[in-house]
Each structure stands twice: as C-alpha cells, then as structure tokens.
C-alpha cells in the first residue's frame, strides 16, 4: 500500500514486527492496522454532526474527539485516562 502522506514509498511492517501498524520507510508516517475488540468499536464510530453557527450564518461540522490512553493492564490499576473534546470546522 502506497503511503498516503508522502506518496513516495510503500508502507511496510515496522522493524520491531509490531502487528498493530505499518509504517512508511521514507517519511515515518504510520497507519494503524489493528482490528478493534468489541468494547473498542464504539470509540471508532463517533458521528460527525452538522450544527448551525449563528455568528457565521452557516452549517458547520462538529466532531466529538475521544482518546483513550493507557498501557497493558493499566485499566486494572485505574490508570486509564479518557479524554474528550469537540472540534468544529
Ligand atoms: Zn511516506
């Protein structure tokens, strides 16, 4: 698969052999290739909705951003951090 960042090289398996992503040897871009588990699917299906901006007098896209940060078994130690925010464009 051609790198969609620099378009000059094909994406390859990283040197560490990690199965969850591929990387571009030219620019270092990565693309996630993992298959989410059932409890992760919801995080990947965040909808984009249209909202009316009174000041600008036009419709804008609003996207809810959710990030999950933690390491192996971090949830068991209550060190999982959930981050949320909203972007408009
Ligand atoms: Zn690239």
Structural overview:
The chain has one helix at residues 38-41, and strands at 21-23, 30-32, 48-53, 58-69, 81-88. The chain has 89 residues and is mainly beta. The protein has two domains: 1-34, no CATH class; 36-88, no CATH class. It contains one helix and five strands, in the order ββαβββ. Helices cover 4% and strands 36% of the residues. The mean pLDDT is 80. A hairpin with a 4-residue loop joins β3 (48-53) and β4. The strands form two sheets. Strands 3-4-5 form a three-stranded antiparallel beta sheet, with no helix packed on it. Strands 1-2 form a two-stranded antiparallel ribbon. The structure holds zinc ion.
Summarize the structure.
This protein is mainly beta and 89 residues long. The protein has 2 domains: 1-34, no CATH class; 36-88, no CATH class.
